[in-house]
Amino acid sequence: MKKVITLAAAVAALLFAQGAKAQTNLQIFYDFGSDRQHVTTTLEGFYNDNWGNTFFFIDHDFNTRDKNNKVYAPSGTYFEIARCLNFWQNSAIAPLSLQVEYNGGVYNGFTINSAFLAGIDYFVHSADFKNTFNFKVLFKKITYTTQKAPLQFTFVWGMSDLFGVEGLRFSGFADFWWEDHMLYTDHNGPILGARASTVFISEPQLWYNVGRHFGCDNLNIGGEVELSYHFGTCKGFWCRPCAGIKWVF
After folding, report:
1. What are the sequence ranges of the domains in the chain?
2. Strand ranges, E, within the chain
């Protein structure tokens, strides 16, 4: 997946947090990364209720190729679901929620180690909710994996009508966590295994609601850039741009 190579990688919600509208959307990307160059689809859902909110996404990478290098099937799938609990939405501590989360999947026939997370989410926003920010501190346990610290720090943002342009939205997340894992690739190709104990990944997205100009508010065009360090089995810093479309149901 664009968010997962061979090891568990937790990502935070790319949508709004509390106070946002419920929505389900489908994103279709082409990943221009030198080590990828394939299509990824992401199905996301975000839903508010009186007890908090729920977020999920499912990634599919389409990179299983035949002897002629033609894609004929997905190469992996990754699933994440997070639940924020907030029974005190009308109190002075309304911005603070409790969060539980699960991540897992498979890639090229290998199981991605499951990750279980729990912690706190702090939500701030502008008066009109056009700009939203979440700060998360989560206990993180990854199965069959050692960690110097079982923690993840996450920052999530969403900014609508950016620079005063209606329909232009800048959103994304940044994650940092501890995970002992092996690295087998750098920018020059395969390497002898090197060890790493930390992971960083961020995926800023920019979308424009182009459909608003012809009566189809569901349609957005844009893309994202994956910025990562020691993510999956890739050593060092990587920048992988993607272009895509998003349909909001």
Report:
1. 23-248
2. 23-31, 38-49, 52-62, 64-65, 71-73, 76-85, 96-107, 110-125, 131-142, 151-160, 168-186, 189-202, 205-208, 219-229, 237-248
Whether the CA torsion 140, 236, 171, 29 is positive or negative: it is negative
Distance CA 139, CA 151 (A): 5
Q: How far is CA 13 from CA 69, 126, 143, 147, 166, in A?
A: 34, 18, 22, 23, 23
3-state class of 132 per DSSP?
strand
The closest of 215, 229, 134 to 178, measured between CA atoms, is 229
**Are the CB atoms for 226 and 234 separated by under 8 Å?**
no
Residue 229 pairs in a beta bridge with 200, 237
Residue 68 tokens, joined: 């002629």
140, 113 contact by CB (below 8 A): no
User: Which helix H or strand E contains 249, and what residues bound it?
Assistant: none
Give 137-149 pLDDT, tens digit per residue. 999 999 999 999 9
Q: Which CATH superfamily is domain 23-248 in?
A: monomeric porin ompg (2.40.160.40)
Report pLDDT digits (tens) over 211-245: 999 999 999 999 999 999 999 999 999 999 999 99
CA-closest candidate to residue 23, choices 223, 226, 220, 243: 220
